Amino acid sequence: MAIVFNQIMFNITQGYYRYIGSGSCRHVFDLGNGHVIKLAKNEAGIAQNKSEYEISAKDNSDLFAKVIQPSDEFSLLIMQKADKINNISYVCDYFNVTTKRELFKLKELQNIKMNYNLVLGDFYRKSSWGIINERPVIIDYGFTREIKERYYQYF
Questions:
Q1: What's this model's pTM, rounded to 2 decimal places?
Q2: Quick one: pLDDT at residue 155?
Q3: What are the E-state strand segments in the chain?
Q4: Alpha carbon distance 133, 131 (integer Å)
Q5: 3-class DSSP state for residue 103?
Q6: Which of 2, 21, 44, 147 lies in disulfide reach of 25, CB 3.0 to 4.6 Å?
Q7: How far apart are CA 73 and CA 118, in angstroms?
């Protein structure tokens, strides 16, 4: 899939893509084709895009929305678009648990924490989850312990 990131950036600046939201270091836009683009605001955003790309490339758990392609310098990242989750209880119900505490004790989540050094506390927010093919997936998973220590620790 040949993606012209210069054209995507032009389209973003022209307002052609619907703005979905943003976090501390990235903006997210709907490309209108079943994918979103995550635009890094700073170095932490670039690091998170790179982390999501690497995790997506290695993972086969179906717990994550898949990365389609990053730009060469990781300032842009194209990912599967997920439907919005209105309440984290949807995720709990899917995994047949009653509390968030039980959810994060699940073997599947403990495995991804261990394998990818993720900060599971970041997944307590409903905005970290979405729905693809009627199943909850993690859509914001670039916040590893290394990134937390490098960009978010204040001395």
A1: 0.92
A2: 41
A3: 18-22, 26-30, 35-40, 67-70, 76-80, 83-84, 129-132, 135-138
A4: 7
A5: helix
A6: 44
A7: 22
| Residue 72 amino acid letter | D
Residues in the chain: 155
Q: Which positions ≥6 away from 14 have C-beta within 8 Å?
A: none
Q: Record the tokens describing residue 122, joined without a space.
A: 């970041």
Amino acid present at 127: S
Q: Which two tokens stand for residue 130?
A: 């979405």
Residue 96 DSSP symbol: T
69 vs 81: CA distance, rounded Å: 13
Dihedrals φ, ψ of 97, to 5°? -125, 160
- Cα–Cα nearest to 91, from 132, 144, 58: 132
Q: What is the pLDDT of residues 107-155, one digit of tens each?
A: 999 999 999 999 888 888 899 999 999 999 999 999 999 999 998 876 4
Enumerate the H helices of 14-155 as residue ranges.
43-58, 89-94, 100-105, 107-116, 145-151
Which residues neighbour 59 within 8 Å (Cβ) at sequence distance 6 or greater? Answer: 112, 115, 116
Contacts of 125 (CB under 8 A, 6+ apart): 88
